[in-house]
Amino acid sequence: MGLVGGPRRDGFSLIELVMALVIFQVGLLGVVGMLLTAQRILTRAELVLRGATAARAVGDSLLAGGTRGNGYSDLPWGTVSWTQLEDGGLRVVATGSSASDTLGVLRLWPPLPVDRAGQDSVSGGTESP
Predict the structure, then answer these.
(1) Does an H or E element contain 33, and which?
(2) Angle at 108 between CA 105 and CA 110, to 5 degrees
(3) How many CB atoms lie within 10 A of CB 119?
(4) Which of 8, 87, 102, 119 is the one with CA 20 to 30 A from 21?
(5) CA 37, 39, 41 angle in degrees (round to 5)?
(6) What are the CA-CA distances from residue 70 to residues 31, 60, 81, 96 (Å)?
(7) 99 φψ region: left (φ > 0), alpha (ψ -120 to 50), beta (else)
(8) Edge-to-edge strands of the sheet including 78-84?
């Protein structure tokens, strides 16, 4: 018998169990929300990495080959476009599947030409080893 004279009950009441389940569900929904946000951020980071890597590769290839002019290349994840700048440099832009989704922008300049005496043709200085 209990203290008041009624039967003694061990365990939890139905209201306590329902409240515990509601609190557990709120926490579980928070965890699922964080996982979905993390997945979205990682997907975006992978896309930015692909864009920056492709932009760098295209820019280096164009500069190494001495190619001049403007152009673009469509890739499965987006587009890499390049523009010849007035100062001799190159502007390379990587965009995602939507044109407003810019993943990376690079400005590259060709290396200074070096004559056989080891001096760059612009400043006349010696090239360091």
Answers:
(1) helix 14-65
(2) 165
(3) 13
(4) 8
(5) 70
(6) 47, 15, 8, 19
(7) alpha
(8) 71-75, 78-84, 90-95, 102-108
| Contact yes or no for 52/45 (Cβ under 8 A) | no
Q: What is the pLDDT of residues 18-70, one digit of tens each?
A: 999 999 999 999 999 999 999 999 999 999 999 999 999 998 888 888 777 89
What contacts 1, CB < 8 A, 6 or more positions away? Answer: 7, 8
Ranges of beta strands (E only) in 54-126 are 71-75, 78-84, 90-95, 102-108
Written as six digits, the tokens of 98 are: 């939507």
Contact indicator for 85, 107 with CB cutoff of 8 Å: yes
